[in-house]
Amino acid sequence: MKIAIMGAMVEEITPLLERVGEYREIAYGGNRYYEAKYGSLDLIIAYSKIGKVFSALTATTMIEKFGAQKLLFSGVAGAINPALKIGDLIVATKLCQHDLDITAFGHPYGFVPEGKVFVESDRALLSIAKEVADELSTTLYEGVIATGDQFIADEERKEWIADTFGADALEMEGASVAVVCDALGVPFLVLRAISDAADMDAGFDFDTFLESSAKESADFIMKMLDKLNG
Ligand code: SAH
Prior knowledge:
The protein is α/β, with parallel strands linked by helices. The protein has a single domain, classed as Nucleoside phosphorylase domain (Rossmann fold), CATH 3.40.50.1580.
């Protein structure tokens, strides 16, 4: 079984590379991909760079060039749901693009013809995540993640995303990866640890908590890999 693990920033995959130990680096498409073995699993690990376009490119490359059969995204996000505190883990049940807007033509926000507003995560991977959380006695939130090409540090925009999509957290790559995986028939899961609350303090909080929250998420992904190893 070949599994892709991706992040957006180097900080999101460094803890994963440290855990797998030996890996082989391959340069492709302006990016670096890392092949590694983890028990019986073949892994392909990469960070895409920030945003929907780079993350779609990386997800596609991991699937089409490297043959990934499942994809796990590990990273950080801004909280919308006030129950989510810095360091908390949230897994997306479904994802949407909050900045996709052709409402001028009567379409809903986040929708383009032949697309869908929400892409749902793989149920089997979601249940593995829940099993891992139970075993670790960790709280794992489940909810809607909204993605857009903007760092949100603004209460008003955050409230709009909450009201429009019922979103619990927001970030900049999840939904684009979801669209790619859905189109190519690859089961995926997007896991995020909260780095900030997408409010006035978001920039400061992000810088402060990026590393620790990225590690929270990566550690959880490693536990999921242990389960997938059987
Ligand atoms: N400090 C970085 C930029 C970070 S952009 C630099 O200067 O290079 C924020 C990244 O973390 C994105 O990959 C996004 O997915 C996630 N993220 C965390 N909090 C976010 C927020 N409030 N709004 C949007 N994305 C957020």
